[in-house]
Amino acid sequence: MEPTRQAQATLVDLLDRILDKGLVIQADLIITLAGVPLIGVNLRAALAGMETMLKYGMMREWDERTRAKEKSEARNPKLETNSNDPNSKFKTVLPQSLEHWDFGF
Which pTM does this prediction carry? Predict the structure, then answer.
């Protein structure tokens, strides 16, 4: 199988490919001064669509927790009137805390 080159690739084509196949970036950076290592940074990042991430076993627990939370919130939404306008009849759904989110990298 020979790699092919598409002459007219667009940004949409690139994003579609990245979200479908995924992209992994891994970098190790060490900052030294006079031969003495001062700062070390280890970076690992993955960019892909949720279907691709789940297919490779990444973020499965996060996805399950998020879906369970969405279901429970759909059953029992917390509604509150707009506090800025006492005569407002509009309801606002209050966002939940993001503390429980673990992105699993």
Answer: 0.43
